[in-house]
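Researcher: I'm preparing a figure for a lab meeting and need a structural model of a single chain. I don't have an experimental structure, so a prediction will have to do for now. The sequence is pasted below. Please return the structure as tokens so I can convert it later.
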Amino acid sequence: MSEHFFESRPHPWHGLEIGPEAPHTVCAYIEMTPNDTVKYEIDKKTGYLSLDRPLRASSQLPSLYGFIPQTYCGDGVAKLMEGSEIGDGDPLDICVFSERPISRAEILIKARVIGGIPMLDDGEADDKIIAVVEKDAIWGDITDIAEFSDILVERVRHYFLTYKLVPGKENRVVIGEAYGKAHAEAVILASIQDYNEKYKK
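Model: Understood. Here is the structure written out token by token.
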């Protein structure tokens, strides 16, 4: 039997590996696609995808969206974001761009990290790492977000700024300017350390 064979389904957060080339290239577990108009999220106990909530806003994701396995947004991640009090206690989020449409969730993608977007959600650090599909025909050679499409980055910022909006209530989400690959890799390394300190003691 192969040593890489799982007899049962591994938990996507804890049972999958981030990949040997992290933080430059990582394994991304996809929870949502650009076609989704409801918020799907991994159930932390079972590892199955669950419906979190219908989305009120009309904007849709411009990319695939999920998380990086065996990462955790804790104190180390929070220290890298100005104004944050704590990390949000979830795995590190990642937005992955593909030139070819991908309509299925619950898939694994080898993603090349190019940057990220700082997001404060009610004072909690909730970074969104930006990546492209490895060997993508259009974006596969991009190494930093400075080489990427400004409008696509702006669409990511707009989506996360508005996706929790509720009429008549204050928006508690603050989105900063995009950062490059070097800082994104620092955030990933901090999230790995946060994960190890919480779950691998």
